[in-house]
Specification:
41% of the residues lie in helices and 31% in strands. By secondary structure, the chain is α+β, with helices and mostly antiparallel strands.
């Protein structure tokens, strides 16, 4: 127990001398997998991924995007302006529709008045389906003024088309001899009624006394209505 102790020799590097340090196999496998994965990813991106843009291409793409955005904004502004114009047109159309309805009401009332007026006119003494219901002739300087109302008893869908012609009886200058003057024909389109107003030139120095009115199919054709009236 108390025997003599053996001397202890200190060897600083004795522990490492007996063991050598090695990289674990699992770490090598892990590092190899990382390298292979990164390489595969880079290869896939290079071969199958989208093409990378250069700086110049990126600038051109950005400029195109800016131009597209500007064009989109312009079109948006035009759409807004067009929408406002359309809304204004719709409002104006509504107002015009209301005015049209009022006008139709007024026209209906006027048509009733005209119908009553035509009924109140004296009939043509000669009768017939086409009648000269009223006529007034007057001298206006060297012209013959006229206002004639012609009606049809049984109007058809297609208006009657013919001519109206005046044969004016009177004297020339200081002569007492009476003479007749035939004036140019006037075209007549007669649906149910028509009133013709105007004036026609007379020969120089002619003094009209009375006028014979004829409504005919054509000049020299069948006479549909005739009436003789004094010139006032």
């Amino acid at each position: 127990m108390f025997g003599r102790s053996k001397p202890v020799v200190f060897e600083p590097h004795g522990y490492r001398r007996g063991r050598s340090w090695k990289i674990p196999r699992w770490l090598l496998i892990l590092l190899a997998g990382i390298v292979i994965g990164v390489g595969g990813l880079l290869y896939a991106q290079e071969e199958y991924g989208p093409q990378r843009l250069t700086a110049a291409e990126s600038q051109r793409l950005q400029a195109t995007l800016d131009q597209t955005e500007s064009e989109r904004q312009r079109l948006q502004d035009e759409l807004g302006a067009t929408t406002r114009k359309l809304e204004a047109a719709v409002a104006e159309g509504k107002t015009l529709s209301e005015q049209l309805a009022e006008s139709r009401g007024s026209v209906g009332a006027l048509q009733q008045d005209i119908d009553l007026f035509l009924q109140a006119l004296p009939p043509d003494p000669r009768g017939g389906p086409t009648q000269i219901r009223s006529a007034r002739f007057f001298q206006d300087g060297g012209r013959l003024g006229y206002h004639v109302v012609v009606t049809r008893d049984k109007p058809t869908a297609r208006p009657y088309t013919g001519v109206m012609q005046f044969v004016v009886a009177g004297t020339r200058g200081n002569s007492s001899a009476e003479t007749n003057v035939t004036l140019d024909p006037i075209e007549v389109v007669l649906p149910a009624y028509v009133h013709l107003r105007g004036s026609m030139p007379l020969p120089e120095g002619f003094n009209p006394r009375e006028t014979t009115v004829r409504v005919m199919d054509s000049v020299g054709g069948a006479t549909r209505a005739m009436r003789v009236l004094y010139v006032r």
